[in-house]
Design brief:
Layout: H1 9-38, H2 41-46, H3 53-66, H4 87-96, H5 105-130, H6 133-145, H7 147-152, H8 159-175, H9 185-195, H10 201-212, H11 216-241, H12 247-253, H13 261-274, H14 276-289, H15 292-308, H16 320-336, H17 341-357, H18 368-384, H19 388-394, H20 396-406, H21 413-424, H22 433-465, H23 471-475, H24 482-492, H25 501-508, E1 512-514, E2 524-526, H26 532-545, H27 553-561, H28 566-587, H29 595-603
Antiparallel strand pairs: 1-2
Helix pairs in contact: 1-6, 1-17, 3-4, 5-6, 5-8, 5-16, 6-16, 8-9, 8-16, 9-11, 10-11, 10-15, 14-15, 14-16, 15-16, 19-21, 20-21, 22-24, 24-26, 26-28, 27-28
């Protein structure tokens, strides 16, 4: 009848809403796991110690290259640099590391950039598969949800950037898989291979795909480009970049490590825990869509990873490429099946299981006590074992026990073996050893004295603040510590001698002025004619109070939303903090964070 609604039409109207709700839930779930794994990044990037012996050896090799020491020199009884990664990694890294103050931060930032690049390429591949925005958003989140993947993102290794380049080449090849432009992926694969000679699944997949598609000429052209490129670059590095060194021996010896059944069994267990579910979903996607290229790529990456993880010294990094591929396939399949509620819920449950299991095999993030423990251990080793010869004379077993004791069980046999091995393969210092040891001990003694002196000063400042009646009023402000309050009182003297806040701002050089002439209206600036240390203390206090949860966080965000630049907003916060301090001393009151709300409540 006209104007009536059929019963079967009602559920279909709700389908778009359910689809949106499912999509939002999926993104929120993946975002929670990704945020969990990204939250330790700042601490991991700043951590001064090495995550494993690999980081320390690679940093030493880069320093040798920067100093002109042949890192590809033949092995000898005196020294040997392992130099197992690609030459591009060392050439780029040696320019980033400061030989005077070598730290891991530049190399870790480069790895973090590569990790984010891998996530972005995975999202681009997922979008290319189904042209769905949900897939493009979900795939990077799945990649970053794997704990050990985000761990490699903050490790100064070559894996992340090499993988980013390799997967980017695979994405280009997939885009032009039916076009002669597929050969453009070859140069990208070559750069990735000479950054780290590990991720070869992508070029192998391209070659197999072309053979299966019976494009034999194009397959021969691709294989020829890769062969000429590999041997041409090997000759370039052997005879031009590193002349007279054993570059070729180092380069291929990395891939000739002995096979270990114990290591292989561990790799199979890792694959069973982390990758069975996404691999089955990925295989189902390529079966439904009959996508030969993705089938070749997925199988090549999985088989190579399972075989390579059986080499001695291998780690979970061999499965990184599988994560990037499977994340794209899973995201594309899930976004495609959202229109079918039963399958969407099933895939969502499987994704929850996958993301939960992805948190296994993840090293813990450094805590504040780890920073202090690492510094204490380094000082101890420098003081008692200043040269490699001292470490060898100590012996491995005593070194393990001492490192366990100093680090309170945090570091032990694995780190001690890496240190002992490095000492065995190092030239070390033999001539002038006594004088060098004496000088190093004097420097360490001077550092310890400075630290003790600073601690005594801080204790004395805290004690003297008790004699200032209004210091407790200033300390009641969240984020303002004893050092800041003591410094401000030392610069200002008595806050109560100032009659207005304008006088106090002028004392700090935070008073505003402008230079105008005629119709020209000048911009307002602080005068900076007051006390520089006072401004510095207020600026650092502003940095503390504008953080998340700080007393000035909301005000700072309002300044930024109104178009104010960050530095100008921090200066405005500094002026505000000084005004609050002046008001607290003048009114003899403690700071109340919800002062306005309390005042309005009293009026009401």
């Amino acid at each position: 009848m006209p104007g009536t609604t059929k019963l079967e039409d009602l559920p279909t109207a709700a389908h778009p809403q359910r689809k949106v709700l499912h999509g939002v839930g999926i993104v929120l779930l993946a975002s929670a796991f990704a945020a969990w794994n990204l939250s330790p990044w700042p601490a991991r990037l700043r951590y001064p110690g090495e995550w494993c012996g690999v980081e320390g050896m690679r940093l030493a090799e880069m320093l040798h290259l920067r100093q002109g020491i042949p890192i590809y020199a033949p092995a000898s009884a005196e020294r040997f640099d392992a130099t197992i990664y690609g030459p591009l990694y060392y050439l780029i890294g040696s320019r980033l590391v400061d030989p005077e103050k070598p730290v891991y931060l530049p190399l870790r930032l480069l790895a973090a950039l590569g990790t984010l690049g891998c996530a972005a390429v995975s999202g681009a591949l997922a979008f290319q598969l189904g042209r769905r925005s949900l897939a493009a958003v979900l795939a990077p989140l799945i990649v970053l949800s794997y704990g050990f993947f985000s761990f490699y993102g903050t490790s100064s290794r070559a894996d992340s950037l090499a993988l980013c380049l390799s997967v980017a080449g695979a994405l280009l090849a997939y885009r032009f898989r039916k076009d002669p432009k597929i050969l453009l992926a070859a140069p990208i694969f070559l750069v990735a291979f000479f950054y780290k000679q590990q991720f070869v699944a992508a070029p192998l997949a391209v070659f197999i795909f072309l053979i299966l598609e019976k494009r034999f000429r194009r397959a021969a052209a691709f294989a020829g480009l890769m062969t000429v490129g590999v041997f041409g670059l090997l000759a370039l590095f052997q005879f031009v970049v590193f002349p007279g060194q054993a570059f070729f021996t180092h380069f291929y010896s990395y891939n000739l490590l002995p096979f270990s059944w114990t290591q292989f069994k561990g790799g199979v267990i890792l694959f069973a825990v982390l990758f069975v579910v996404p691999t089955l979903v990925g295989l189902e996607y390529v079966r439904v869509h009959r996508d030969r290229f993705l089938a070749c790529y997925l199988l090549a990456a999985t088989i190579i990873a399972l075989l390579a993880v059986g080499k001695e010294g291998s780690d979970t990094n061999y499965f990184l490429e599988s994560i990037v591929i499977l994340a794209a396939l899973y995201a594309a399949f899930l976004a495609e099946r959202l229109a079918q509620p039963a399958q969407a819920v099933e895939l969502l449950v499987l994704m929850a299981v996958m993301l939960f299991s992805a948190q296994f095999f993840t090293p813990s993030a450094p805590r504040p006590d780890d920073f202090a423990r690492d510094r204490e251990l380094q000082n101890y080793l420098l003081k008692h074992y200043p040269t490699p010869l001292d470490i060898l004379e100590c012996g491995l077993s005593p070194l393990v026990n001492e490192m366990k004791q100093i680090s309170r069980g945090k570091l032990g046999e694995k780190r001690a073996k890496a240190l002992y091995t490095a000492a065995e393969t190092s030239v070390g210092i033999r001539e002038g050893r006594i004088g060098m040891t004496f000088e190093l001990q004097e420097l360490l003694h001077g550092i310890e004295e400075c630290e003790r002196f600073m601690n005594r000063i801080e204790e004395e400042l805290a004690h003297r603040l008790q004699d200032v009646p209004y210091s407790r009023l200033l300390l009641s402000m969240k984020g303002i510590g004893e050092i800041t309050v003591a410094g401000l009182i030392g610069e200002v003297g008595d806050f109560s001698k100032f009659r207005t806040i304008s006088e106090l701002l002028k004392c700090a050089g935070l008073n505003l002025f402008e230079i105008s002439s005629g119709k020209r209206q000048g911009s307002r600036h602080i005068s900076k004619k007051g006390r520089a240390l006072m401004r510095k203390l207020l600026y650092f206090a502003a940095l503390c109070t504008v953080r998340q949860g700080g007393i000035m966080h909301d005000r700072y965000q309002r300044y930024l939303q109104n178009g104010m630049k960050k530095m100008k907003a921090l200066v405005a916060i500094s002026r505000k903090l000084l005004g609050i301090m002046f008001a607290l001393v003048r009114n003899h009151t403690f700071y109340q964070e919800d002062y306005l709300a309390t005042r309005y409540l009293k009026v009401a």
